[in-house]
Amino acid sequence: MKARLFLFFLCLSFGVSKAQELKASWSEMQVYDNGKDGFFGDFSGINSKYIYGKFIRFQMASPFKKNQRISKIKLVAFDKLTMKKTFTAALIGFPENKAAKEKYKDLIFYKTIVFENTVYVFWFKESKLKDELYVQSFDANLKVIKPLQKIYELSAEKGQKKKPELFVMGNKEIEDKILIGGEMAGDKNENVKIEYRLLNKDFSFEASGQVTLPYLITRRSNSLSSSYELGNDGNLHIKSFVNKDGEERKLLLKGESSAYPIISVVDLKTGVLKPLEFKFDNKNIFDFNYIIGKQTTKVFGFFCDLKKDPNGWDTHGIFYAIIDNASNTVKSINFSMFTKDQLNQLFVKDKEDQKKARRKDLKKGNDAAKSDEESLQSDYVIENVQSADNNNLVLFCSRMYNYSVTTCTTNANGGRSCTTNYYCEKSNVTAFRIDADGDIVWASNLDREITYSGWYKWDVTVINDKANFYVLYGSAYNEGATKKGKTKKKSKSMKESRDQLEYAVFSYETGKFQKRTYMINSPTTPKAERKSVNPLAIQVFENRFYFNHVKTSFKPLPTILTCAASLACPPVLLMFYNGDIYKGKGCLGTLAPMK
Predict the structure, then answer these.
(1) Which of 19, 83, 107, 307 would staple 123 via disulfide (CB 3.0–4.6 Å)?
(2) Backbone φ, ψ for residue 494 (5° rounding)
(3) Distance, CA of 535 to CA of 86 (rounded, Å)
(4) What pTM was computed for the model?
């Protein structure tokens, strides 16, 4: 252990080699208009030649509908390196779809799965007592292979507490397998049951089955109770969080969590289910997740040691386990504790996190202060996990603080109205490399801060070239000039935020990093051609960053007519319109290390 601590400090004392630069490729600037192709929605998948983008009718989200139907959708294939537009397929809402309009009535777009030679598009239709699943397929050039077809449904009886809920997933690593199915309807105190089917290319089924999961329906539910993944081992992996029953709750220690994670593995050929509980004495598990390989599954997360913090809040270290996929049994398990010296060295340039103790209760005694000194802030979350080899993992984490601000006003008549705005404050990019035994090899912290509108914003994306990790993240300030010997954090100007994309390059060997800046626009870029990149909209495919830029504005004539008809133009009024008064210009981009 002493050797590992020496390596930890030794790593922090050395720098990284000169970091490589990132290079971008952009598509041509496109005109976005609901009357034409619509607006870019997201990237749907990638193969050896193309990356596929989904274009949709731009409209404001309705607060009254769980699944808002989009009336215009088109798939577009771009060359994945040059971002040149190559092929398109109109799905709904275009003149070429007019003959099939009735077939798509009441259908809601669900998801796209892209393989090397086939692109699948799934749709669903839901009612109070039934969920129906539809699919169509295209070749890589977006020519129709099989037209739209209903392939599956789940139904419920009136009065059942749990509504049926569909799932669809694919895995190109296991011969382009697609698994469909869902959680079946049920009543309170019944076990959750799932049904599954392996889908063939001709929309027939290779295998099917039903499985009873090891936990109960406890309340009314209109969503999935667990997360599902078709693993590289060919099995279905299910991650669930199970609430302890009444008798177990009576035995809970102060601060001990009343829920614990379970990984259940289903052999899709036999239907045999193997559950594995993760319950440990005197420990709470946070941010529980896993990476599935062909022979083993790596399980990881943060943990709280209740002996150090009886309240069960503090994050005292990293939990790591290796599971044998064949037997679904634990091969090894480790709880790697943080130490005061480790954390002081980690946050040596970030005094706010080095001296935490923000909660008053942590100042009441020596035990609470010691727990605070040997733990991360409790709002840390694991945002990204990288595996540069078979023996190590690198966890990229950040702090996430969600809060709301309510503002109330009173009019001349005494009427009072209140508005609540929601915010997500993000800070730090903190990385931990853990080895095959689960011990910390190095830890490194980058200080940053940004606040987004809305809650639960994930903005840390990562690629690697084995030697280095390239990390994109949002940051609202630069490290500026010093004042009285202390670093002053200066907020970025709007121009800096638009023209500069901040990223960092972390060395795999040492954990040391260099902050870098990719200049999106040069000083001579014409105003009409300036681009920007939103950290929240970056996606990663095949170890490259992909993103989009769009700039919207109002169409003059429709806006005037709308305002004239409503006799007013307050911004809140625009939320209720369908988007036809907007136009836009945009392009798509990809970013990767220079060769």
Answers:
(1) 107
(2) -60, -40
(3) 26
(4) 0.87
